[in-house]
Amino acid sequence: MTNLWHVPNLFLQKLPAERFTATAAVKINLRYDGEEAGMIVMGRDYQYISLRRSEGKLFLNTVRCIDADKGDAEQVAASEEINSGNIFFRIKVDKGAECTFSYSSDGSAFKEFGGSFTAREGAWIGAKIGFFALRDGFINDAGWIDLDWLRIEKTK
User: Fold this and answer.
1) 18-59 pLDDT tens trace
2) Which residue, 102, 138, 140, 94, is CA-closest to 119?
3) Tell me, what's the pLDDT at 45?
4) How far is CA 2 from its chain centroid?
5) Average pLDDT of span 75-97
6) 64 has pLDDT over 80
7) How far is Cα 38 from Cα 28, in angstroms, rounded to an integer?
8) What confidence score (pLDDT) does residue 106 get?
9) Where exactly are the structural domains of the chain?
10) Rounded to two decimals, what is the model's pTM?
11) How far apart (Å, rounded) are the C-alpha atoms in residues 40 and 91?
12) In the CATH scheme, what is the code of domain 10-154?
């Protein structure tokens, strides 16, 4: 898979305002290498923050794809090993669709991760925000993401 443009199992909604902050408390249990789950801003360009299992370890990643609709490949903007699948993801959207991704282990102190990103519209409607869970291949006993809560707050 080159990118997520044709992936049908993205859980998305249109951006709710010009400026807002979306914070999610998630529990991610990745059972096998190649599994990944995260929070995304999706459009013709996209960026996401995720946990991915590789070589038996969990990695926090920020990945972006420019011109996804044209088949361009994803690029990893940041990656670091992490110890727990209990995590808080945050995406702050500012004027001009400027998105900043961050994470926290306690829900209080957030660390920006992966640089800013400017969202672009999708094929039929504007950019969307949401979640995904993917894996390489098929298995009946795959990992999962549990979205405990999502809060969207208008920012000034």
Assistant:
1) 999 999 999 999 999 999 999 999 999 999 999 999 999 999
2) 94
3) 96
4) 16
5) 96
6) yes
7) 9
8) 95
9) 10-154
10) 0.94
11) 9
12) 2.60.120.200
At 60, list the tokens: 């926090």
Using DSSP's 3-state secondary structure scheme, residue 96 falls into helix
How high is the pLDDT of residue 150?
96
Strand partners of residue 101 = 91
Nearest Cα neighbor of 1 from 123, 13, 9, 90 is 9
For tokens 């869970």, what's the residue?
A: 133
* Tokens describing residue 99: 């998105």
Q: Return left, alpha or beta for 67; rule: phi > 0 is left, psi -120 to 50 is alpha, else beta.
A: left
Asked if residue 137 lies in contact with residue 14, where contact means CB atoms within 8 angstroms, the answer is: no
Q: What are phi and psi of 130, to 5 degrees?
A: 175, -150
Q: Contact, 128 vs 14, CB < 8 A?
A: yes
Cβ–Cβ under 8 Å, residues 141 and 31 = yes
Report how far apart, in Å, the C-alpha atoms of 18 and of each of 14, 79, 81, 119 are.
11, 28, 33, 11
What's the token pair of residue 75?
A: 């690029």
